[in-house]
């Protein structure tokens, strides 16, 4: 396999991944479950945005998923534009027990489409499926919405970790596929953050 | 369209002329969103605004709801609730969804025309927040609030914080900690900080790298949350000075429904007390010639200080001149003017007001205004038009707080106000520059309201005109119908005539002999018919002749082109023919 990293062993492909969705749907919890395999039940809203990452192995390629987790409160804030820019993956989350969070999915998607690159891979996630006795959004509804908008769809539970790993790895795999099909050029648009501080600082000095 | 435009302008003009007092009417625009900060908590008449009601609802019913202020409600339901409010559902019932009300509050804050905390105040808070030592930090934040905040903004912020405080004090039920509540509300309260408008150590580089920008934004969000969380945690300490003043303000007065009854009693008693004291004071001061004027000028500064335009200038001027005791006198004068209407000395006082006012505004028909409200109205004429609504509302606030003011022992009160005013003067000087922009914004907001008012008026005028146009159209339509009827009637008549004529012509075509045997014709008609028949026969014959002659003439013209004489002869002969017959 061709590795664009000039043979450096430590080099990994970095995908920028963002989580979006209403406040309190479990974006941060999904992330926490994915990166640290734990669940936290306090209502602790994300401030501004958090960032964490995990390296996953996709078909033998080490892939760093760098996940930016934004506050759901921030739908109206200016933070969003820079947040969406350069993202390869968007994890769009709603809460299956709260209908309104699903109703707002279209808005979030629209916001993402306006700023994010066209090659954005979006995964729609119906979270909290461990509470399906309180479900107000059916699986089929989520699935058909995803289908009409060309999204991947999964129901997951950050609490039981059901489908969490799968969602993120599926996203990473899809991005790899896009790269291999030439639909996405990882070097053109977004260099891995690992290199960004040096590169950008150097660049600024010269210019 | 062009015509419409002209049309509208005209109606607006006439309308304005016809209803000169339109400004006194309530704005027809939204009662909920987009209101200036000055009117965020109270309506023009001093009654609680949508926001204030919603905050009270949250404090009462929202505290037990899990994830209150955090969980999003359906955007459409929030919109619907806002609309319903505008359509008259102005009270929140206990069974409403607290999340919707919570989001209504957020929506209103988000839609405020300017940030609840202006940029300069954000910067001041941010600087204070960066201090390491906790005590120093809290002190700095306290002075940032008392020195840089315009009064309406401080009141709004404090009111919101109070609600947040109440919610955070029920963490066990709603699972919202102070930090969580702060995280949810900070972006709305410290708008400029989040938007990167505040001076930061690390400058927002909008063209810079996305990640760096994002980090800076996240950093700002963190600071904002930290500031609000600190304000919330140290609410008592930071607002201690304002606390007295705050508890006097109307919004917090109604807050605790449980203790309301007892406080009311206290107020009543104390009111009498304060009233008495004040009366004495005024009586004493009225002996002094300047007394009344001093009171009144004090009053001027107090109420017109909120007029929006010269807010802090007025205060600063007044405070500079003021000696230590004066603010106290001034405020008590206020109470008195409102209440001791029958007192002789106060009558003098209002006479003085009139002269004072008419000096300033000769066109103002001020005469014997005794109630504080009408005073407010007079004062409002200083800033023609624009500040009318704010004036009244602010005035009523002032009035209410004065009332409650009575509940404190007299001596303590004078201390309190004295200190307060001294601080205010300091505060006003510093705000003068930094609050200028905010003031300008407020003025613009008021002007905007004004314009919206006008537009509404215009629209109403247009509606009326449209109605009259409609009526006219209707009238025209009716007339048209009537005319059409006439026409058809006439057509019938014509038809009848024609029928008659046809009958007559039939008669004509018959011989005169046949006529005699004709069925239903009377003698006269028959005679006429015969006559006509003869005449017609003659005419027909003549016509034939003429035609023949014309034919001949033409032939001659064609054939004997040269000899016109002959033709002339024939022409001359023509009349001869006619005369013969």
TrEMBL record, chain A:
<dbReference type="GO" id="GO:0005525">
    <property type="term" value="F:GTP binding"/>
</dbReference>
<dbReference type="InterPro" id="IPR027417">
    <property type="entry name" value="P-loop_NTPase"/>
</dbReference>
<dbReference type="GO" id="GO:0003924">
    <property type="term" value="F:GTPase activity"/>
</dbReference>
<dbReference type="InterPro" id="IPR001806">
    <property type="entry name" value="Small_GTPase"/>
</dbReference>
<dbReference type="InterPro" id="IPR005225">
    <property type="entry name" value="Small_GTP-bd"/>
</dbReference>
<keyword id="KW-0472">Membrane</keyword>
<dbReference type="InterPro" id="IPR050209">
    <property type="entry name" value="Rab_GTPases_membrane_traffic"/>
</dbReference>
<keyword id="KW-0547">Nucleotide-binding</keyword>
<dbReference type="GO" id="GO:0012505">
    <property type="term" value="C:endomembrane system"/>
</dbReference>
<comment type="similarity">
    <text>Belongs to the small GTPase superfamily. Rab family.</text>
</comment>
<protein>
    <submittedName>
        <fullName>Uncharacterized protein</fullName>
    </submittedName>
</protein>
<dbReference type="Pfam" id="PF00071">
    <property type="entry name" value="Ras"/>
</dbReference>
UniProtKB/TrEMBL annotation, chain B:
<dbReference type="InterPro" id="IPR052799">
    <property type="entry name" value="Rho_GAP_Regulators"/>
</dbReference>
<feature type="domain" description="Rho-GAP">
    <location>
        <begin position="39"/>
        <end position="239"/>
    </location>
</feature>
<dbReference type="Pfam" id="PF00620">
    <property type="entry name" value="RhoGAP"/>
</dbReference>
<feature type="region of interest" description="Disordered">
    <location>
        <begin position="399"/>
        <end position="436"/>
    </location>
</feature>
<dbReference type="InterPro" id="IPR008936">
    <property type="entry name" value="Rho_GTPase_activation_prot"/>
</dbReference>
<dbReference type="InterPro" id="IPR025757">
    <property type="entry name" value="MIP1_Leuzipper"/>
</dbReference>
<dbReference type="Pfam" id="PF14389">
    <property type="entry name" value="Lzipper-MIP1"/>
</dbReference>
<protein>
    <recommendedName>
        <fullName>Rho-GAP domain-containing protein</fullName>
    </recommendedName>
</protein>
<dbReference type="InterPro" id="IPR000198">
    <property type="entry name" value="RhoGAP_dom"/>
</dbReference>
<feature type="region of interest" description="Disordered">
    <location>
        <begin position="557"/>
        <end position="581"/>
    </location>
</feature>
<dbReference type="GO" id="GO:0007165">
    <property type="term" value="P:signal transduction"/>
</dbReference>
<feature type="region of interest" description="Disordered">
    <location>
        <begin position="250"/>
        <end position="288"/>
    </location>
</feature>
């Amino acid at each position: 396999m061709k590795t664009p990293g000039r043979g450096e062993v430590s080099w990994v492909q970095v995908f920028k991944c963002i989580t979006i969705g209403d406040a309190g749907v479990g974006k941060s919890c999904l992330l926490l479950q994915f990166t640290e395999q734990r669940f936290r039940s306090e209502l602790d809203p994300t401030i501004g945005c958090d960032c964490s990452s995990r390296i996953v192995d996709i078909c033998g390629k080490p892939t760093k998923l760098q996940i930016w987790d934004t506050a759901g409160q921030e739908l109206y804030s200016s933070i969003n534009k820079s947040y969406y820019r350069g993202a390869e993956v968007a994890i769009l989350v709603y809460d299956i027990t709260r209908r309104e969070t699903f109703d707002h999915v279209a808005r979030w998607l629209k916001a993402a489409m306006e700023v994010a690159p066209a090659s954005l891979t979006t995964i729609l996630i119906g979270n909290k499926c461990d509470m399906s006795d309180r479900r107000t959004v059916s699986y089929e509804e989520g699935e058909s919405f995803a289908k009409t908008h060309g999204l991947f769809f999964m129901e997951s539970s950050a609490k039981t970790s059901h489908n969490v790993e799968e969602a993120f790895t599926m996203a990473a795999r899809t991005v790899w596929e896009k790269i291999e099909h030439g639909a996405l050029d990882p070097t053109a648009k977004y260099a891995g953050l690992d290199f960004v501080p040096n590169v950008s600082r150097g660049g600024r000095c010269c210019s | 369209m062009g015509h419409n435009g002209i049309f509208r302008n005209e109606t607006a003009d006439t309308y304005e002329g016809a209803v000169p007092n339109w400004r006194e009417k309530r704005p027809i625009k939204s009662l909920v969103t987009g209101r200036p900060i000055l009117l965020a908590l109270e309506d023009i008449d001093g009654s609680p605004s949508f926001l204030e009601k919603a905050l009270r609802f949250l404090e009462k019913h929202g505290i037990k709801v899990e994830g209150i202020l955090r969980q999003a409600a359906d955007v459409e339901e929030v919109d619907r609730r806002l609309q319903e409010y505008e359509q008259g559902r102005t009270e929140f019932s206990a069974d409403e969804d607290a999340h919707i009300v919570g989001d209504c509050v957020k929506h209103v804050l988000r839609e405020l025309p300017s940030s609840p905390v202006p940029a300069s105040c954000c910067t001041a808070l941010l600087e204070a927040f960066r201090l390491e030592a906790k005590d120093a930090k809290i002190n700095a934040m306290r002075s940032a609030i008392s020195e840089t905040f315009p009064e309406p903004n401080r009141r709004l912020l404090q009111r919101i914080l109070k609600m947040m405080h109440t919610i955070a004090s029920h963490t066990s039920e709603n699972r919202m900690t102070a930090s969580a509540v702060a995280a949810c509300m900070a972006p709305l309260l410290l708008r400029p900080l989040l938007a990167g408008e505040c001076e930061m150590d690390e400058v927002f580089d909008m063209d810079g790298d996305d990640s760096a920008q994002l980090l800076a934004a996240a950093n700002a969000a963190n600071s904002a949350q930290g500031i609000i969380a600190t304000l919330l945690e140290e609410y008592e300490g930071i607002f201690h000075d304002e606390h007295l003043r705050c508890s006097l303000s109307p919004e917090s007065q109604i807050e605790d429904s449980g203790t309301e009854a007892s406080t009311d009693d206290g107020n009543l008693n104390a009111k009498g007390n304060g009233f008495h004291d004040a009366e004495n004071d005024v009586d004493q001061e009225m002996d002094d010639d300047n007394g009344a004027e001093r009171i009144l000028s004090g009053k001027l500064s107090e109420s017109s200080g909120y007029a929006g335009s010269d807010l802090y200038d007025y205060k600063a001027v007044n405070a500079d001149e003021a000696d230590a005791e004066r603010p106290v006198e001034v405020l008590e004068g206020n109470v008195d003017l409102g209440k001791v209407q029958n007192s002789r000395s106060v009558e003098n006082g209002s006479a003085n007001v009139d002269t004072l006012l008419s000096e300033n505004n000769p066109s103002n028909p001020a005469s014997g205004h005794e109630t504080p409200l009408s005073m407010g109205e007079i004062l409002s004429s200083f800033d023609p038009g624009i500040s009318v609504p704010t004036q009244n509302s602010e005035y009523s606030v002032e009035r209410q707080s004065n009332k409650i003011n009575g509940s404190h022992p007299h001596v303590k009160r004078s201390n309190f106000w004295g200190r307060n005013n001294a601080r205010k003067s300091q505060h006003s000087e510093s705000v003068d520059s930094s609050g200028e922009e905010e003031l300008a914004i407020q003025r613009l907001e008021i002007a905007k309201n004004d314009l919206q008012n006008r537009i509404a008026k215009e629209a109403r005028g247009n509606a009326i005109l449209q109605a009259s146009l409609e009526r006219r159209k209707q009238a025209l339509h009716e007339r048209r119908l009537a005319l059409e009827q006439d026409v058809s009637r006439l057509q019938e008549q014509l038809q009848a005539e024609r029928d008659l004529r046809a009958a007559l012509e039939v008669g004509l075509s018959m011989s005169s002999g046949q006529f005699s045997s004709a069925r239903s014709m009377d003698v006269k008609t028959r005679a006429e018919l015969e006559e006509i028949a003869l005449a017609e026969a003659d005419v027909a014959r003549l016509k034939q002749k003429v035609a023949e002659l014309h034919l001949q003439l033409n032939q001659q013209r064609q054939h004997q082109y040269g000899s016109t004489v002959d033709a002339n002869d024939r022409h001359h002969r023509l009349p001869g023919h006619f005369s013969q017959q």
